Amino acid sequence: MIKAGIIGGAGYTAGELIRILLLHPEVELLSVVSRSHSGEFLYTAHPDLEGDTNLKFDSELSQHADVVFLCSGHGKSKAIVEGNILPESAKIIDLSSDYRIKGEHDFMYGLPELNRDVIKTASYIANPGCFATCIQLCLLPLASKNLLNKPVHVSAITGSTGAGQNPTDTTHFSWRNNNASIYKPLKHQHLGEIKQSLEQIQEGFQQPVHFIPMRGAFTRGILATCYLELDESADTIKKLFKEYYAGHPFVTVSDSSPDVKRVVSTNKALIHVQKEDGQILISGVIDNLLKGASGQAVQNMNLMFGLDETLGLNLKAIAF
Predict the structure, then answer these.
(1) Is 121 exposed, middle or buried (0-12, 13-18, 19+ CB in 10 A)?
(2) 230 contacts 274 by C-beta, under 8 angstroms
(3) What does the record list as coiled-coil region(s) (predicted)?
(4) Which of 96, 107, 212, 260 could form a disulfide with 126 if both were Cys (CB 3.0 to 4.6 A apart)?
(5) DSSP string covering the chain
């Protein structure tokens, strides 16, 4: 059994991670650290876990963990890693943005549909951002054939859980409900990792990616639409997408335009291709907390430990 630990256990992504790991057939959840909830039952922060576990939050991580998930938030993971508090032999999966951009560190970028073989041999993984995951899944097949030779336009909308558990002026219910807004237009922090991946797979990629992020009046999920000028037909591009994702179990190229409800509470991504007026339009949907965060983290863990990629992640969409 893989012994797992979590640091930063009180937030949304940690809650999803706990739920998955408690049911994972090859994992023992050993330690969940939250300084603010130390000594309390996990279900005090995650009420839906009541009746499922009697584990309590720890103040310090168990040194017997084989894998550690860092869920403390952006800017905090580096201090944890550099603080020498992690088990020396443990594999690390960081869900923050601290190590996503290549630099003087040993973390590998953990998008399985791009780096599966690298992930299998890695000890340290930087889990991708939620917007970045969805947008990259819409663009990677085109980049793989050097087809991103025109400016790329992206609009994407996310649910309120993407902003974290602590309410802010733009996430609390009375503001978010019956409302929509853009934020960080053309300069969102996920652009760096998106461009990095496109440059990795399409040598010489230099096209601008014009990204407009939006806040939606719903809880979870992301819908991204990406379009650019392209001479190839929709059928040709659809075939390319199906070939690219043929070996990737969580991505489905759909014949119909996807909606968020079809993927909520799953680790799935649905991608759709169409062509209008010389523009190829690719739309994609994921659950921001699962394929965009905790589900993908467990997918990475499975690969790192030589397990079936889908183990523990056969999650079903909510029926409406």
Answers:
(1) exposed
(2) no
(3) none
(4) 107
(5) -EEEEEESTTSHHHHHHHHHHHH-TTEEEEEEE-GGGTTSBGGGT-GGGTTT---B-BSS--TT-SEEEE-S-TTTHHHHHHTT-S-TT-EEEE-SSTTSS-SSS-PEE--HHHHHHHHHH-SEEEPPPHHHHHHHHHHHHHHHTT---S-EEEEEEE-GGGG-SS--TTTSHHHHTT--EE-STT--TTHHHHHHHHHHHSTT----EEEEEEE-SSSS-EEEEEEEE--S-HHHHHHHHHHHTTT-TTEEEESS---GGGTTTSS-EEEEEEEETTEEEEEEEE-TTTTTTHHHHHHHHHHHTT--TTTT--PPPPP-
Output the six-digit token pair for 43: 């279900």
134 is catalytic: no
Taking the C-alpha atoms of residue 253 and residue 173, their distance in angstroms, rounded to an integer, is 34
Average pLDDT over residues 280-289: 98
State the Cα–Cα distance between residues 197 and 136, nearest whole angstrom. 8
pLDDT of residue 187: 87
Summarised one tens digit per residue, pLDDT across range 88-104 is 999 999 999 999 999 98
Phi and psi (nearest 5°) for 246?
-60, -35
Say what the pLDDT of residue 178 is. Answer: 81
Higher pLDDT, 85 or 293: 293
pLDDT interval class at 189 (50, 70, 90): confident
β-bridge mates for residue 229, sequence order = 279
Identified catalytic residue from 71, 130, 134, 226: 130
Fold of 2-127+293-304: Rossmann fold (3.40.50)
For the 130-286 domain, the top CATH level (class) is: alpha beta
Q: What is the mean pLDDT of residues 212-217?
A: 93
| 306-319 confidence digits (pLDDT tens) | 999 999 999 876 65
CA distance 253 to 246: 9
